[in-house]
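Pasting as-is:
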Amino acid sequence: MPRPDSLPIRILLTALVAFGPLSTDLYLPSLPTLVRVFGTDVATVQLTLSIFLVGFAVSQLVYGPMSDRFGRRPTLLVGVTIYLAASAVCAMTSSIDALIAARFFQALGACCGPVVARAVVRDVFGRDRAATVLAYMSMAMALAPAVGPMLGGVLTEWFGWRANFVLLTIFACGILAAVWSMLGETNAHRDEDALRPSRLAANYLLLLRNRGFLGYVLVVAFSYSGIFSFISGSSFVLIEQMHLTPAQYGASFGAVVLGYMLGTFLAGRLTPRLGGPRMIRMGTLLSMGGGLAGGVLALAGVLHLLAIVVPVFLFILGTGLTLPNASANAVGPYATMAGLASSLLGFAQMAIAAVIGIVVGHMNDGTALPMMGAIGLVSLGALLAHRLLVIPAATSGRSA
């Protein structure tokens, strides 16, 4: 097997982190098609996105402690197998209710990827190098949302919406084979009591009582919620209201994602010199500027492609600076329960994003305001979480 810090393993970990975004972004161009195919409404179709986040959030609480108890490798093998089976069901389903249910189980499998990958990075690289490694992984992982909608748009136009889930099934087969043949165990501190309910409750309370950890969690959760607001609402705004084709939508989505790739690239280059706290300050400020600008334009009734793409590009650029550093600083201090900390971080990230996604779906009024307004509000929330929780905790020495 390759060394845990080798390039092939980093590529595999990046692919595992990409499970979530690829599972949502690939089929985004087909969402308006699903409304017509299943004879339903926008809010119901958007449930296929929100229910994915619910499943993703709930299983986060299991996979982290599970990987602390049984090891990273067996946990990944279980999760990827569940994902493969659920993806195949998504490709074959004939009703919107069955698709929603299958998406829930797809999420139960998919979330093992980022949870265990973050823990593996912590195992192998330690706290000091983890932020840099996660930043470069995030930059490479951003290829999934950059390429996913473009590829999904082409697949939907040429072969129909089912082709997206066929591709995800094939992808899962490849990942399962790679984990089985390439990834060795990296958890040298297995915790025999990690899954004991009383121990879980005590450890979760320990984490949540730390103001710095809670602040980092909220920064990550609000930042990701802005991304998900764009994910859940953009296809209806750009395709239904601006009359872009699925392929054109994919290209526009890819252009926005370039902002995230640029942000994570800069995070990887600048974090060793400037430090994580400064990068988070810069990122949250930039995200708030883009988010509030987009919200104001939408409130003024400006419906133009540039009025969507440019503010979201700036928001996502700032998010690219913020997420790797906030994630690394949240998990970094907890060597003996890195999986648990990663789980709680991921749970909050996905749960808050799911709630906001459902709200955006039900507030759909034929304008860009629900989507852009949500991005503006969560960008402000991320900035306030950093200012009111993270900075005071660091000053008092309660969080690194």
